[in-house]
Amino acid sequence: MKDRNSNHDTIRLCRDVDQVFKAAGRVSRINAFSLVEVLIVLAILGILVGIAYPSYQTFVLRSHRAIAQSEMQKIHTRQELYNVEHRQYASLSELGYMADSVGLDGDGKVVAAGTGRYDLSMKADPPAGQFVIKASATAAQLADSNCTILTLNTTGDRTAEGCW
What is the C-alpha to C-alpha distance for residues 68 and 134, in angstroms, rounded to an integer? Predict the structure, then answer.
């Protein structure tokens, strides 16, 4: 019996509160966004992401390419220093790399060949006094379609026009 009386008291209290709000000129209503408004905002965000994401990917590919080019320049500089001391050009392993073909990840760290964004290799021709450094795109970097193979030779000539 007690529970029934307490339920009636609660209902009476709620009615009294509603009457107080109505007398004060306020309507007891919850302010919130409707489902249609939320869906419109989500649609606009989807459109913005759809436009921005491809541009973002292009910049990511360019930044990884710049990292590979920087490493190629380092190798070129090391080759010239080695040539001054030894009167010949060296292999990558003689320049301090872990092998004659190495990989380069997105952060510019030298890794095993085939595991990074670029594979770096070099062909030296000691009798002719020349070398060619080659960076070949791998994995996700292959999306950089016009710049998948970059080369830099002894004289500083670069291939893959428009990529340097």
Answer: 10
Tell whether 96 is covered by a domain. yes
Q: Nearest to residue 147, comparing CAs of 156, 155, 157, 135?
A: 135
In a domain, 89, yes or no: yes
- Residue 63 forms beta bridges with which residues? none
Its domain, for residue 155, covers 67-164
8-state DSSP, 25? T
Question: Is 124 a member of any domain?
Answer: yes
Distance between CA atoms of 124 and 67, rounded to whole angstroms?
A: 22
- For the segment 3-54, what is each residue's pLDDT rounded down to a tens digit? 556 666 666 666 666 666 666 665 556 788 899 999 999 999 999 999 999 8
Question: Rounded to an integer, what distance in angstroms lies between the CA atom of residue 104 and that of residue 115?
Answer: 8
Q: Residue 20: inside a domain, yes or no?
A: no
Q: Nearest-CA neighbor of 138 among 163, 111, 98?
A: 111
Please count the structural domains in the chain: 1
Q: Which two tokens stand for residue 100?
A: 């004659």
H or E stretch covering 3: helix 2-23
CB neighbourhood size of 66 (10 A) = 13
